[in-house]
Amino acid sequence: MEQPSKQEENARFISRLTKKTLALILAGGRGSRLKNLTDWRAKPAVPFAGKFRIIDFPLSNCINSNIRQVSVLTQYKAHSLILHIQKGWSFLRGESGEFVELIPAQQRLSGKWYQGTADAVHENLDIIRHHAPEYVLVLAGDHIYKMDYGPMLAAHASSEADLTVGCIDVSLEEARGFGVMSTDENQRITAFNEKPENPQPLVDDPNKALASMGIYIFNTKFLLEQLRKDASNKSSSHDFGHDIIPSIIDDYRVFAYPFNKQREGDILKDRYWRDVGTIDAFWEANHELVGVTPPLNLYDKVWPIWTYQEQLPPAKFIFDDDDRRGMAVDSMVSGGCIISGAKITRSLLFSNVHLHSGSILKDTVVLPDVDIAENCRISKAVIDKGCAIPEGMSIGQDPEEDKKNGFYISERGVVLVTPEMLKQNIHHSR
Asked: For the chain, what is the total number of helices (H) and then of strands (E)?
């Protein structure tokens, strides 16, 4: 009998591991650095890339990694997030033990809302025990990336780790917003500091530091023990980065799993991972998608990003007169859009956006259900869902005028416009 190849053995090994894994996606955060963009939705529910939401990326990673038991923990203004997951992620078969389940904050063990990332998991210990996984994969619900979690699980099991932390190289400036770690030659973590003022640089690159991606693999028994211990600590902030990881690295087997590089032929390239936690980062990550060869390939059939989307007609461009021509250049335009005698350049339009004659958009991200009236001029902006831009309005042309109109202007000059800023209180009862 022909013996299975090493590659086949590795695939089977990973497959067994993924079947024994429960993924917990922490999707309860507001994301306050996104300013008014999260006034009425949780950060994981924020639209991204024309037709998706941020939560679709970790969910798609789970499904594509063959991890089919997924719990999504929600809290802050979760209604749109819940609707999105119910509509778009209910295709798994419960009879086969597969699910994407929603777990709202329920004060199951205490009378308080979640106090930190570790507390969010601790509050749902009975649900974890009910599913009886061998491994628990804890994920942040607010990052944009593609990742096969199978090899990370294999590395965790092979190293006999108690905890494995997904990590990525970032600049020293960026590192101040992450958990930063140091490792030995075997990738064992020797130090971990959450959001340090002076991050420890890499040995081989003094301009970068090794940062946590908010991806953790725990042995289930070990996780339950540490969560109970942390819950009884009155001085703890009940956070994985602040409290649990620093407290265990000396006494337990805690390893880093580097995500940075992927091999394409003979070339090593950086993998795509974005924390779109600020208006600047959100605009840039969306804006770079309209490039000729963007770093995030949304057309990848091998690793598709799944989502829920309305059944909409194709985008339509109308009028071809010299002074009124509907056109888009270096742009992405989603279904249901009508470009009526307007011009867009280097911009990304989500679904059901209507641009009227004479309007010009440049370097702008327009979320769903926006109506832009005639003769508007908009540059380097993010227009929130449901906005109705009045005729002749200029956005991103004059900072003083933008401030006078009550718009938010980021450090890098991106203008955020929401319905409330336009005195259009679509979220309030009349």
From this structure: 11, 33
Is 195 annotated in some ligand binding site? yes
* 332, 248: one domain: no
Q: Is residue 411 part of a domain?
A: yes
Q: Please say whether the beta carbons of 377 and 356 come within 8 A.
A: no
> Residue 253 above 60 pLDDT?
yes
Find the CATH number of the domain harbouring 404. Answer: 2.160.10.10
Give me the residue label for tokens 């777990």.
103
For residue 5, pLDDT over 70 is answered with: no
Annotated ligand binding at 76? The verdict is no
Question: What tens digit of pLDDT does each residue of 27-42 get?
Answer: 998 889 999 999 999 9
- Domain count for the chain, please give it: 2
Whether residue 264 is found in the same domain as residue 361: no
pLDDT tens digit string along 113-145? 788 999 999 999 999 999 999 999 999 999 999
* 241 labelled binding-site residue: no
Same domain, 272 and 214: yes
DSSP string, 187-228: -BEEEEEES-SSPPPBTTBTTEEEEEEEEEEEEHHHHHHHHH
Task: Give the pLDDT score at 30.
Answer: 86
* pTM score, whole prediction: 0.93
Instruction: Give the mean model confidence (pLDDT) for residues 72-83.
Output: 95
Rg (CA), the chain: 23
Q: Specify whether the CB–CB gap between 325 and 307 falls below 8 A.
A: no
**pLDDT tens digits, 293-338:** 999 999 999 999 999 989 999 999 999 999 899 999 999 999 999 9
Whether residue 176 has pLDDT greater than 60: yes
Residue 38 inside a domain? The answer is yes
The reply to whether 335 and 276 lie within a common domain is no
- Let me know if residue 427 belongs to a domain: no
Q: Residues 241, 245, 250, 254: is their CA dihedral positive or negative? A: negative
User: What DSSP string describes 225-246?
Assistant: HHHHHHHT-TT----IIIIIHH
Residue 284 buriedness (CB in 10 A; 0-12 / 13-18 / 19+): middle
Residue matched to tokens 């005639």? 374
Could you list the residue range(s) of the whole structural domain that residue 30 is in?
6-290
179 assigned to a ligand binding site: yes
Q: Tell me if 309 is assigned to some domain.
A: no
